[in-house]
Write a structure and sequence with these properties.
- With 69 residues, this protein is mostly helical.
- The chain has one domain.
- The chain has four helices and no strands.
- The radius of gyration is 16 Å and the shape is elongated.
- The model has no long low-confidence stretch (mean pLDDT 77).
- Keywords: Membrane, Transmembrane, Transmembrane helix.
- This is Transmembrane protein 128.
- InterPro entries: TMEM128.
- Pfam families: TMEM128.
Length: 69
């Protein structure tokens, strides 16, 4: 981890700001409605695998943002 701090000093601030911005955008009522509709649509197709699928997508976004730094 120390190597990342030396090589990419702006990694943690950029990642933190990205997650805060995503949280603000997600809290909008229209975005929340879209999220709920997306969950319902996935549940009809994947049933009990939906939470695992959503967790995998979330972790993919987390890893993608961390690689941008």
């Amino acid at each position: 981890i120390e190597e990342y701090d030396v090589k990419y000093p702006s990694l943690i601030p950029v990642t933190t700001v990205s997650f805060i911005a995503a949280g603000i955008c997600f809290s909008c009522s229209l975005r929340l409605f879209d999220f709920v509709v997306f969950n319902i649509a996935l549940w009809n197709v994947w049933s009990f695998f939906t939470p695992f699928l959503l967790f995998t997508q979330f972790m993919g976004v987390v890893m993608f943002i961390s690689l941008l730094g």
